[in-house]
Amino acid sequence: MSVGVVRETTEGERRVALVPKVVSTLVSKGVDVVVESGAGLGALIPDELYVDAGARIGDPYSADVVVKVAAPTDDEVSRLRSGQTLIGFLNPRNERNQIPALKSAGVQAFAVEAIPRISRAQAMDALSSQANVAGYKSVIVAADESTRFFPMLTTAAGTVKPATVLVLGVGVAGLQALATAKRLGARTTGYDVRPEVAEQVRSVGAQWLDLGIDAAGEGGYARELTADERAKQQQALEDAIKGFDVVITTALVPGRPAPRLVTAAAVEGMKPGSVVVDLAGETGGNCELTEPGKTVVVHDVTIASPLNLPATMPEHASELYAKNLYALIDLMLGEDGAITPDFSDEVLAASCVTREEGTA
């Protein structure tokens, strides 16, 4: 069985699907790994390190299994052949995805973002591993844009109070943002429409902002709020946001536009020099004034909406993602060393978005 590692062509994408350490593990299992020349350069991994790990440099589309980070382009789909397996972020909930084209090409495809968030699948959970990176980097972005120190400082010139940071949406990215802001010395608070995560917020040393709304949904995600709940949340958040120096938003609802949590009025009420970092820009943003992919200043408040933050930390993001892919590939490897996915396994059944004809 062979695995091909593609050089990413999406603008700004610096991650690579497999790193040399994981390649060597696959090779030790008898897997032939083919790496496209320059695939690791964005993550500062030269071809030589892949060769040292046992891979060969060549055409990744000649392999039985092709692994990627970003969803394939039209050109990349055209290079795939019937009977191959593709693994990567495939945007299955985006209506403009390539899944129909992959199905027409006879490609068996697994979308890593569709892996169920269950205990047994944690090692394969690429959404969580990359959200950790995004949550960490969001705080670095906020600290860089802020006009204020994060920690309390006691100096000969006087004492500086710590910055106050509010994180809206405390999934994996939000919890990492809270933990990172706490390490930088900020006074942290978390909010989510799922009240059961309050203990997780407190576990990273943050306070819990209780607005009295419960919108727990399936699969660890929040459900969409009713109109009355949205109105109640909006007013309560608007009042609360004005008291924070930094607001980081991470709230997403699968398959839907990002919920609007930070209104223009809330931004106007924040102190001059405050910062909003919106991690939901790719689905419209949580802030009413967000311009996805840009940093703007409105009412003397900086609103940053960086896209694909994990790609800005390609070394560790690639390392984590590669481990996720290895765990998924290992689950599909049969005793004969070939890819033989067992679709009675809920992880494989949920993540497979196109299936070979005749498979159960």
UniProtKB/TrEMBL annotation:
Origin: domain of life: Bacteria
CDD domains membership: Rubrum_tdh (cd05304)
Reactions listed under catalytic activity: NAD(+) + NADPH + H(+)(in) = NADH + NADP(+) + H(+)(out)
Record-level GO BP terms: NADPH regeneration
CC terms in the record's Gene Ontology section: plasma membrane
Entry keyword set: NAD, NADP, Nucleotide-binding, Translocase
EC number in record: 7.1.1.1
Class of this enzyme: translocase
Stretches assigned to the Alanine dehydrogenase/pyridine nucleotide transhydrogenase N-terminal domain: 4-134
Domain Alanine dehydrogenase/pyridine nucleotide transhydrogenase NAD(H)-binding: 143-305
GO molecular function, one term: NADP binding
Summary of the function given for this chain in its UniProt record: The transhydrogenation between NADH and NADP is coupled to respiration and ATP hydrolysis and functions as a proton pump across the membrane.
NCBIfam families with a match to the protein in the record: PRK09424.1 (NF006942)
Name under which the protein is recorded: NAD(P) transhydrogenase subunit alpha part 1
Lineage: Bacteria, Bacillati, Actinomycetota, Actinomycetes, Mycobacteriales
